[in-house]
Amino acid sequence: MSGADSVLADGLTHDLPDGTVEWIAEVGGGTITRLERHVARREAWVVDVTRPDGSVLEGFLRLDRHDVPESSSTSLVRETKVIQALGATDIPVPEVHGRNDALRCTLFERVRGRSDIDKLDDPVQQRAVMEDFIRVIARMHLLDPDELDLTRHMPNVPTTPAEAALNDVDLALEQWAWFLEGYHEPLITYGVSWLRRNVPDTLARLSLVQGDTGPVNFMFDGDRVSAIIDLEWAHLGDPLEDIGNICVREFWNPSGGLDGLFHLYEQESGIPYRRFAAQYYRVQQNVRGMIPIHYISENAHPRESLAWYLCYRYVGDRATCESIAEAEGVTVERPELPDGDAGGRDIVAEAAMWSLENDVRPAITDAFATSRARDTELLIRLMDRRRRFAAEIDAVECDELGELLGARPASRAEGTHLLDEAIRAGALPDAGVITYLTRRAYRDEWLHEPAVSLYPERTWSALDD
């Protein structure tokens, strides 16, 4: 019997790196009796370790398949240290059962409760949870960074309002420079330019911010928060950045709106809420988050859930454009879109989609495999939709690019490249660029509707004045 066999209950399978299950069993002090791939953007596993006395360690394993520098904005090493530091405060976070640098993994406590606040049927409970969450975030922002002893683990600690607003943007640009060098995306170029030209001029204090906070990135039990989770983007910065982050998370996971929540935050923290800061940091999170999303959607490994990333990209692009347009006071009309029933049948695509939906998915019991089968069905639907409408959309793009640039490009790719260069040169009016990019985003979101169906009809909740 191998070492792995002796620590893993019969019937459990995995593709974890060599040595991982042995380490989990050692940390838990028993035999692994549950090991399931968790359905999530970042790879994670649900783990139970049953000890000789019958007690069970209920764990949640995060791991990196490849080395990720601690300076990276998605470092699991740094995330682990942040959670350990917060564990010594009154901020609820998961317990860290163990960290293994050689295996690049951390075993966290599997926290009681649920994260899907957007799925609650009771608006009273939903509101109570959101208000408790706001109080937790307010307390976190008041913690002394020096007492947390995290400064030495944080890259580019800001000292000015501009640095607080832009350091994470610059870090993302630096980390993805090898990709961006040959990737001409006008929305990224314009978004970065807009952020640089509109940095907030005040910084109330330097705080530990979650960096991707809001609905679904915390656990709750009843009407109270049981843990803040997903602190991969945690860093020292402007506390109002998290206000913008909450807006973004609530956009993706509608949780009863934002009415009054940021005034509650101001009351609990003493940190002044400013509406433009919320608008600014909505854009900031979208722009820095957009860069890796664009990379993965263009270069996804088969292991990645491409349908989800395409959804994040095209809904996220539209959300970014809308948030910039709102902050600039630019009103953009939605463009006319093609007839979704046009384009003719593809009997091969129809057969594949029918088989997946009716024969394959109903027969699968594993949650991760079910999710992957659903992804495959969506990708087939998307390929069929692109076949029917991509050329028509591209022709409209060339027409509108011609109006903006002064000459119609020969192709959408050429026009995109020319627009990117014109934005870099500052040669175009903001309103014209914002209008075109937003209309383009509406069309692209429509074209990718099968993937977008994972997060349909997302809209921004109104901000407090």
Structural class: alpha+beta
Number of strands: 9
Radius of gyration: 23 Å
Q: How many helical elements?
A: 17
Give the distance, in angstroms, between the N- and C-terminal Cα atoms. 66 Å
Q: What's the CATH topology label of the largest domain?
A: Aminoglycoside 3'-phosphotransferase, Chain: A, domain 2
Q: Show unreliable segments.
A: none
Tell me the fraction of residues in β-strands, as a range: 5-15%
Q: Whole-number average pLDDT?
A: 94
Q: Main β-sheet: number of strands, strand sense, barrel status?
A: 5 strands, antiparallel
CATH superfamily of the largest domain: Aminoglycoside phosphotransferase (APH), C-terminal lobe
Named at the architecture level, the CATH assignment of the largest domain is Alpha-Beta Complex
H/E series, N to C?
HHEEEHEEHHHHHEEEEHHHHHHHHH
Number of domains: 3
Helix content: 40-55%
The CATH class of the largest domain turns out to be Alpha Beta
Strand order, main sheet: write it out.
1-2-3-5-4
Per the principal axes of the C-alpha atoms, what is the gross shape?
globular
